[in-house]
Amino acid sequence: MKIDLTDTTAGEINKALVQGRRAIGTPAVGMVLTMVIVTDEENAYDSIKAAEEASHEHPSRMLVVIRRHSRTLRDRTHSRLDAEVRVGSEAGAGETVVLRTHGDVSDHADSVVLPLLLPDAPVVVWWPVGAPDNPSADPLGRLAQRRITDLYAVERPLEVLETRARFYAPGDTDLAWTRLTLWRSMLAAALDQARVKVTSAAVEAEAENPSAELLARWLQARLGVRTDRVVSPGPVVTAVRLGTGEGEIVIDRPEGPLATLTLPGQPPRSLALKVRPLSELIAEELRRLDADDMYAVALRGEGTKETV
Amino acid sequence: MSSACSGPFRGTRWYGSARARADPAAAERPSISRDEAVRRLEGEVNEVDKGVDAEMTDKPAEPARGPAPDAAAQSAKGGVHVPVAPAAGWVNPLRDPRDRRLPRIAGPSGLVIFGVTGDLSRKKLMPAVYDLANRGLLPPGFSLVGFARRDWEDQDFAQVVYEAVKEHARTPFREEVWHQLSEGMRFVPGDFDDDTAFKQLRAAVEELDSSRGTGGNFAFYLSVPPRFFPKVVQQLKKHGLANAPRGSWRRAVIEKPFGHDLASARRLNRIVHEVFDPEQVFRIDHYLGKETVQNILALRFANTMFEPIWNRSFVDHVQITMAEDIGIGGRAGYYDGIGAARDVVQNHLLQLLALTAMEEPIAFDAEALLTEKLKVLKSVRLPEDLGSHTVRAQYAEGWQGGERVVGYVQEEGIAPGSRTDTYAAVKLGIGNRRWAGVPFYLRAGKRLGRRVTEIAVVFKRAPHSPFDSTATEELGENAVVIRVQPDEGMTVRFGSKVPGTSMEIRDVSMDFAYGESFTESSPEAYERLILDVLLGDANLFPRHQEVEESWRILDPIEAYWDEHGRPAQYPAGTWGPREADEMLARDGRSWRRP
Predict the structure, then answer these.
(1) What is the pLDDT of residue A302?
(2) Per the count of CB atoms within 10 A, which of A3, A149, B227, B346 is most buried?
(3) Domain shared by B24 and B170, yes or no
(4) Which of A71-80, A282-291, B342-351 reaches the highest mean pLDDT?
């Protein structure tokens, strides 16, 4: 069921949500969190789709804040809020409210979002694009326990990475880091098998890949060795090499989802290592809502190992 | 911002369990501080140089099973990759308890399935292995060995697994995952008597250790009828397969039935324990792998609002129901002579009872859980008059969900005079301060109204009602219902005012269902359990003491039934025999309609 509201307020949206829920006959729903997506019109569709898929695992109220840009000066000063309330089968496992802000209200989106948060439940903010430099100081970011940014969506990822490191606050996380989970767990598993001390490390990836940089920093911090960054044709991260006294541990993924794992003194074996869709990344993010200390370690790189 | 960092899910208990999750090995050794871990890690480098001495220093940390000479003999052969001595104190620098994203991946290991051509193996085990691989929870190099009396090559076996996975796996089929798995598939043809076959199995295991890096860690899944257990475990022992090389493990996984009475269960346990250490024997009770069952513990011990009323002062009685809508199908040979009580009450229902009634364990680990479950099972009291507080019955011909179905004794392969129970209901008491006087009604049956398993904790009525009796006429008792299957979740039932001008109160229910069945959040029970076996996490497996204790509860009932009367009859598709309703009516209660 879909209810359109033009030039509206948070109070009216709340009423529409209750009305929508009554209409589909489920007055109580077991939603576990509020997800706020801050995006532009261009990226809204994909983001909502991914979040709705993730909502099957984490039933949630989704508030999508879309800032509309007006072409004329007159429109720009005229402040208006439009909303689209979706409940039932159209909204994944939960409720979706798409908020379109025009004019001045765009700068005060938090005043619209605050009354619409689920009582008590944790709040997650996700910026698919255009994340603020300092997410935890952002008016919307301040409302949330968890703030998700994406280094893949910026023009100069490595520069922004430094900004993220500078402004890091517990609760920050980035999808470039989430994308590494499979790599990291396979590397940890490989080391479980090899059980040797690592003396050198190298990450091979396409140029300017933020995930590769995070992976390199994580290895550096955890293994206490210098990690080389090697540029390869990609796509994304193509290989990780860990040098040990007995030979190299290599996970090589030249292309496609099938990687090869090589351990010293053992024949190579294949390893499924796919690039996961956005919805899986978001679902992973929502599984834990406390601070991701290890992201902080990776973000800051070497030398911070003991201080965090 | 400091409040953000101590988020809602952060507490010492949670942290502790996350630690065990992040580092499987940590579960087996005393937890160590980070500094200590680093020190050990650094110390290890020196110890390597010292060679043999190093082997001795760190030894106590690892529960090394199997005699050392055996391990020496194996490594002398050269083919086997035995983890070197420092392994015991080795800490993986890439793992950290704070790193909650890294999933619980099993360590290097392999799974050997006996009876791999069976139904369970095709429908549950193989798909579960694939689903685990698909979720990235199996270690690289994980290997699957099939053992059966078929003239197959490895490829034929892989083909069978492929078909099973295609048909029954929960997660979508992905070529690369399949490729990873299929490289480690081996098949050993042969009989359980066949020494050559077991020699071949041993060769296969050793070959996998060197070619796939399984590190000597193997779980043997005995998906075979229990009468073959003695033979198989003896063969494993004879061919040195049950002895783990130093620093590795060998585990046995067995399925119910764990015997058919106390004596046979003891016999079976003795046979298995002769070969495998009791700690290394994993008994599968797939109910315990279900999310909701694990949730019982979370519900009771992570919250404050349930535990204070979880006792005789507030609880009137508890009903545990396991209803199936199917008949015995093609299982006549197994089912006749066993019956509902032995088939499901002894294991599933008594386990659910134990989890519902037990005291808080001191920790969420296998030993603490065993202690509490065992205590409550030992306090179970049978009714004095078994005749009026137990009921057994057989389904008779009837209509089940719009289909005409035959009665039990008309089923193919069942003797007309069979006295096997397809329905069993018993009233049990628990002799402790918390539960004295609160009856636990357990019922299980086939061909009942619909398929459902649930635990209903029914509370006492309010001691005094300020409302007129007319106002509360329709008010029942408050209840917390934990739905185990299908549609896992929880319902709370309480009274609420009917909207309108008059005061009238009636029951409403509040329902909670977390997650849908086809997402990662609700893996199949077998996935969870197989992963736990590989991780050595015994929380969700009943130990032999529990099995024996459960038989001690059931044996007198079965003995009474053997000597008294015949099973009652109930039409298929109903909620059981009239006698069962009368049994509760005698206590002034009635069965819930699930």
Answers:
(1) 58
(2) B346
(3) no
(4) B342-351
Q: Would the CB atoms of A272 and B174 count as touching at under 8 Å?
A: yes
Please indicate whether, in this complex, the C-beta atoms of B105 and A222 are within 8 angstroms of each other: no
Based on the domain organization, do B448 and B306 belong to the same domain? yes
CATH number at B158 reads 3.40.50.720
Interchain pair A171, B133: CB under 8 A: no
User: Tens of pLDDT along B35-70?
Assistant: 544 444 443 433 333 333 333 333 333 343 444 444
Nearest by CB to B180, which of A188, A272, A291?
A: A272
DSSP state, A277? P
State whether residue B551 is helix, strand or coil: helix
pLDDT in tens, B474-508: 788 999 999 887 777 888 999 988 888 788 888 88
Asked whether residue B397 falls in the same domain as residue B546, the answer is yes
Q: Are residues B312 and B391 in the same domain?
A: yes
How would you class A213 by CB atoms within 10 Å of its CB: exposed for 0-12, middle for 13-18, buried for 19 or more?
A: buried
Q: Which of A249, A250, A266, A269 to mutate to test the interface with B (most CBs of B within 10 A)?
A: A269
Nearest chain B residue to A54 by CA distance is B519
A160-185 pLDDT, tens per residue?
999 999 999 999 999 999 999 989 99
Tokens 């109930």 found at: B570
d(CA B437, nearest CA chain A) in Å? 35
Q: Which of the residues B260, B317, B348, B389 is marked catalytic?
A: B348
Positive/negative CA dihedral, B68, B72, B73, B77:
positive
**pTM listed for this prediction:** 0.80
Q: Which residue of A has its CA nearest to B521?
A: A57
Residues in chain B: 594
Is position B594 within any domain?
Answer: no
Residue B81 has φ and ψ, to the nearest 5°, of: -95, 100
B104-130: average pLDDT: 89
Integer Cα distance of B380 and B435 in angstroms:
10
Residue B354 CA to residue B546 CA, distance in Å, equals: 10
Of chain A, the end-to-end C-alpha distance in Å amounts to 47
- Is B560 among the domain residues? yes
Q: Which of these three, B202, B236, B255, is where a domain ends?
A: B255
Closest CB from A170, A184, A257 relative to B5? A170
Whole-number Cα distances in Å, B455 to A196, B296, B354? 49, 10, 12
C-alpha–C-alpha distance, residues B363 and B16, integer Å: 10
Instruction: Give start and end residues of each alpha helix (H) in B23-67.
Output: 34-50, 52-57
Provide the domain limits for residue B56.
1-98
pLDDT confidence of residue A29: 60
Average pLDDT value for residue range B189-197: 90
The rounded percent of chain B whose pLDDT value lies above 70 is 83
Query: Region A117-127: what's the mean pLDDT?
Result: 91
CB B160 within 8 A of CB B125: no
Of B144, B211, B222, B226, the closest CA to residue B182 belongs to B144
Residues B87 and B112 in one domain: no
Contact, B242 vs B236, CB < 8 A?
yes
* Chains A, B: CB pairs < 8 Å: 163
Burial class, B193, CB count within 10 angstroms (exposed 0-12 / middle 13-18 / buried 19+): exposed
Q: How does A119-137 read in b/e, with b if 16+ C-beta sit within 10 Å?
A: eebbbbbbbbbebbeebbe
Question: H-helix or E-strand containing A163?
Answer: helix A157-167
Among this protein's residues, is B348 annotated catalytic? yes
How far is residue B369's CA from residue B363's CA, in Å, rounded to a whole number? Answer: 8
**Domain final position from B231, B255, B279:** B255
